[in-house]
Amino acid sequence: MNTAFLYVSIADKIRQLIDTQVIRVGDKLPSVRRLSEEHGVSLTTAFQAYYHLEAQGWIEARPKSGYYVRSKPSKSYALPSASQPDAIVQTLSNDELLTRLYNQPDGPLRFAAAVPAPDLLPVAKLQKAMIHALRTAPAGGTTYEDGKGNAELRQQIARLAFGSGSVVTPDEVIITAGCMEAVVLCLQAVTRPGDTVAVESPSYFAFFQAFEKMGLNVLELPANPTTGVDLDVLETALRAGVVQACLLTPTFSNPLGSCLLNTDRQRLVQMMARYRTPLIEDDVYGDLYFGKTRPRTCYSFDTEGWVMLCSSFSKSLAPGYRIGWILPGRSGSAINRQKAVFSRTCPTLTQAALAHFLAHGRYDHHLRQLRQTFHLTSLRYQQAISAYFPEGTRFTNPEGGFVLWVELPDLIDTVQISQQALLEGISVTPGAVFTAQQLYQNCLRISFGQPFSAAVEEGLKRLGKLAGR
């Protein structure tokens, strides 16, 4: 069995013993060393199994005593409601709330920032890769890179695409300055002012800003917090001819964390081909899955070229390097023309450094550790939210990524809470920015990119108090 998930199997066995009352509330569990010996695993794996159970609320650690079975929390929590945006095409205008969000000062507790904490990144290895790039790049990296991007980096990205079910050549890959530039280049290639783009609701707030700047309209689609966008509603819009492009995040959407089933991905791709409508697939969280296998991309099901896949290393490896990419389908020529006009190429040294890092097999090892950390961190955040937030709070239980969507009781204004939290050094993103409609006023997006700690727990506790006032 893959050791990255062996601790989950051990934890499941212990939980079954608790469920069947073979082990009862208050019973002391075997020591970490004894557990490792009984199951023939490392001390680290044994500890992770207990940490997993602790995060879910099944056991508790007592100082200088060990682990004990605890009673389950008395409060029960449900998933947030499926979204129900109005089925109307909307024009957009500048949102003052988004401007304030971008300009808010950084506090010590950045629950608003959907980026991994630096402590979770292989900084030392990336520094070595950068030094190698400085020494080996032509003219020390001062010359322009190829317009499509560093050849070795494109080769490595083509290799990564195989892991998500696609077979692509390095020549198909287009390097961009992060995933958002990739999305904008795709939009510029397949839309024109006045067109309507369909997105799931809620959806990443920067998409709405891009639509506004490009003179595009938006149609928000209902979405389930677990299974994602409502394809029936999308097909109705496609059949009516009111949508000229779709921009969706099928794998661990931001902010819901939903994930489309493979059967739904196949249906979505078939719909795009049937109605000859381009799909821009944002896959930026795809590598951060908590299960045994990576979800396949919609791009991997596409045989006619209507899907354009956008991703980056910003969520998994090096946010500051700003390296993303596009797998462009049939739109490669149009996207390359747009890139030649607006950015020409991407920085030489960061591309070379990432290519060297990826070529030496360090990324897979890093991802295994990062996925494991985010999974456990997600459970700890959920446990804290369940303990400290008001009765009636709902929150997601994502199977990947690192954001939680929290739905508070109806009369709570999360814009006001976010402003009050800033005064206490806590940043959090109100739900109202994830839509162009008057929705999600009682919702928050909380990033768990920061490892769980006493400070994080205290911050969530303070947020819960603000929400309960």
From TrEMBL:
SMART domains: HTH_GNTR (SM00345). Pfam families: Aminotran_1_2 (PF00155), GntR (PF00392). Keywords: Aminotransferase, DNA-binding, Pyridoxal phosphate, Transcription, Transcription regulation, Transferase. The keyword DNA-binding applies. Gene3D superfamilies: Aspartate Aminotransferase, domain 1 (3.90.1150.10), Type I PLP-dependent aspartate aminotransferase-like (Major domain) (3.40.640.10), Winged helix-like DNA-binding domain superfamily/Winged helix DNA-binding domain (1.10.10.10). It comes from the Bacteria. InterPro entries: Aminotransferase_I/II_large, HTH_trans_reg/aminotransferase, PyrdxlP-dep_Trfase, PyrdxlP-dep_Trfase_major, PyrdxlP-dep_Trfase_small, Tscrpt_reg_HTH_GntR, WH-like_DNA-bd_sf, WH_DNA-bd_sf. Residues 4-72 form the HTH gntR-type domain. GO terms for molecular function: DNA binding; DNA-binding transcription factor activity; pyridoxal phosphate binding; transaminase activity. In the C-terminal section; belongs to the class-I pyridoxal-phosphate-dependent aminotransferase family. This is PLP-dependent aminotransferase family protein. The lineage of its organism: Bacteria, Pseudomonadati, Bacteroidota, Cytophagia, Cytophagales.
